[in-house]
Design a protein that fits this description.
InterPro entries: Glyco_hydro/deAcase_b/a-brl (IPR011330), NODB_dom (IPR002509), PgdA-like (IPR037950). The chain is of the alpha/beta class. It has eleven helices and nine strands. The structure holds zinc ion. The site of zinc ion (ZN) has 5 residues, from loops.
C-alpha cells in the first residue's frame, strides 16, 4: 500500500512535537476589555482575575514543568515583564522561552504599520533590558493581526509566530507572495484553555455567558486531540493562560495530561524557538 501522507521528520526520530505555551497576559486583557465601559477603569475585580496569573499561578506552573523537566514558551506582554521583572527572570533562568505578545495586549488589526512597529520595538527594548535578550517568537494578542504584521515581524528579525489557526504542521509564512523563513506554528481554539474555562460575570466573558467547562471534559478533549497529533506525527501546540490553567484543580488535570504525553518515549517537547529553528533548517 502506498503512503499518501507525508510524515514529518522530527529530531531524534521523535514521532511528534509538543509546544507547551502559556500566554502570561496578567491583567492586560481585562483592563483592555473594561475600557469599553463607562467607569470601567474602576472594575477592580476583573483586574484581579488577571493578576492571579503572575501572582499565584506561574510559580506553581514552573514547579510542575520542573518536575517533568519540560520546556515551555511564555508569550508575555512587555508591560507584564516590566511589572514582574523577578518572575520573568526566573522563567528565563529555568530555561523557558519568553515570546513577544504586544506591550499591553493590543489588537494589532486596529493599528497602523507605524503604531505596530513602535509597540514591537518598545517591547523588545524592555525584553532586552530586563531579560537580557529580545524575543524571537511572537503570538498575536487579542483579535487578529493586520496584513502588515507578518512582514513587519519578519523585517524586524523575528524567527517565528504562533498566531494563526490553519495548520497542524509548522510552515513557512508567505509574505507579499514570497515564501519566507518566518515560521508559523499554529495553535487551535480547541487547544486553548481560555476558550474552555475563561469566565467573568461582569463585564460578561464570554459575551453571551455560559462557559466553565467540566475539567474531565476538557482533559478528554485535549488528550484525544493529542492522541491524534501523535498518530499523524504533527506539532501539538497547547495554548494556556496561567490565570486560567493555573488554578489548583486544573493544574492536576494538566499534570495528568503531561503524564499521558510522557508515557510515550518518542515525543519531542520543545520551545517555539527550537521547533521553528528545526523547521527552518529542514523544511
Ligand atoms: Zn494573550
Amino acid at each position: 500500500m502506498t503512503e499518501t501522507y507525508e510524515k514529518i521528520k522530527w529530531p531524534n526520530n521523535a514521532r511528534c512535537a509538543v509546544m507547551l505555551s502559556f500566554d502570561l497576559d496578567g491583567n492586560t486583557i481585562w483592563a483592555n476589555g473594561n475600557r469599553s465601559y463607562p467607569g470601567g477603569e474602576n472594575f477592580i475585580r476583573s483586574i484581579s482575575i488577571g493578576d492571579y496569573g503572575p501572582k499565584r499561578a506561574v510559580p506553581r506552573i514552573l514547579d510542575l514543568l520542573a518536575k517533568y523537566a519540560l520546556p515551555a514558551t511564555f508569550f508575555t506582554p512587555a508591560k507584564i515583564v516590566e511589572e514582574n521583572p523577578a518572575l520573568l527572570k526566573q522563567i528565563d533562568q529555568a530555561g523557558h522561552e519568553i515570546g513577544h505578545h504586544g506591550y499591553q495586549h493590543e489588537r494589532f488589526v486596529d493599528l497602523t504599520r507605524d503604531e505596530q512597529k513602535a509597540i514591537i520595538l518598545r517591547s523588545q527594548d524592555i525584553f532586552q533590558q530586563i531579560i537580557g535578550k529580545k524575543a524571537r517568537g511572537y503570538r498575536t494578542p487579542s483579535g487578529d493581526w493586520s496584513r502588515e504584521t507578518a512582514g513587519l515581524l519578519h523585517e524586524l528579525g523575528f524567527l517565528y509566530s504562533s498566531s494563526m489557526r490553519g495548520d497542524d504542521r509548522p510552515y513557512r509564512t508567505v509574505i507579499d507572495g514570497q515564501v519566507t523563513d518566518f515560521i508559523e506554528m499554529a495553535p487551535k481554539w480547541d487547544l486553548d484553555d481560555f476558550v474552555q474555562f475563561g469566565y467573568n460575570l461582569f463585564p460578561a466573558e464570554p459575551a453571551g455567558q455560559d462557559r466553565i467547562s467540566g475539567i474531565e471534559q476538557v482533559y478528554n478533549n485535549f488528550k484525544q486531540e493529542f492522541d491524534g497529533y501523535y498518530q499523524y506525527g504533527l506539532c501539538f501546540v497547547l495554548l494556556m493562560h496561567p490565570q486560567i490553567i493555573g488554578k489548583p484543580g486544573r493544574l492536576l488535570m494538566l499534570e495528568q495530561l503531561l503524564q499521558h504525553m510522557k508515557s510515550h518515549q518518542d515525543i519531542w517537547f520543545a520551545t517555539g524557538e527550537e521547533i521553528a529553528e528545526w523547521w527552518r533548517a529542514n523544511y
